[in-house]
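Extended Data, panel c. Modelled sequence:
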Amino acid sequence: QVQLVESGGGLVQAGGSLRLSCAASGRTFSTYDMGWFRQAPGKEREFVASISWTGGNTYYADSVKGRFTISRDNAKNTVSLQMNSLKPEDTAVYYCAARVKHGVGFAINDYNYWGQGTQVTVSS
């Protein structure tokens, strides 16, 4: 089992940048695929980005491709999301998630463990 704690959210102007981090507990972090999801008010939680357990494969939602970068450091049990050129529509609570099964995973049900979320607000 793994526990996930997100940090790095905040208020930023449109065009700005934020870096989210997710710290994981447990000795098996390096065996999990990791993902970031977000949920805006009144909307369903949606996939943002994911990275394989080796870090060799990454996937992005079309809405963030070219602006966001997911990375991981297995030695430090962390996964990060660098967000550049932020837009007001990126405003949401961002969640880190861990997936036991390897492979492509875009759905909420693909992930086994979740953090509590961190708020990102982008002002226009």
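The CA atoms of residues 8 and 20 lie 5 Å apart. This feature is highlighted in the accompanying rendering.
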